[in-house]
Amino acid sequence: MGSAGYWSSTTHAGGTGGAWRVDFYYGSDGNYAKSGSYYVRAVRGGQSRSLDHWVINGDGTVTDISKGLMWQQAMAPGTPNWQNALSYCQNLALAGHTDWRLPTIKELASLADLSRYSPAINTDIFPDMVSADYWSSTTGASYADDAWYVYFGSGDGHDGYKSYSYYVRAVRGGQSRLLDH
User: From CA 75, how far away is CA 170, in angstroms rounded?
Assistant: First the structure.
């Protein structure tokens, strides 16, 4: 696989003229005009993603039982820089749990619903979600001063300076599929 852009079959929810593309050089994804020329990799089979893997726990948390992750349902207050986002999550006590953390870029991107736009997430599950940037814990591979984030207006991922101020949603788990629920 070359370090370049590869098409997906997913039309961008913001308009029919664009489709999702993954860039394996930068590790980012995004909306690109369908008239562009990018690589293709065929796939067959797989599983469809349904929304029945979400459990709204009624205690300020939501569990993704397919991934074994429990999410803070409401956004964290404010828009901290990356270091303060890490600290907020590590010090969070919610629903009787104190093992919260900032999600990895893959975990955070799993919240994006690419069939939706502005915000690109199911607002029945996360009703206060805004179309904005949300921090992940993943440091950029090229620059230690960068970290990855997801823009939930469209659902695409980018990297930015850790000194920037973005929104935060804490997660816990990954080691167990039960998570007390």
Answer: 8
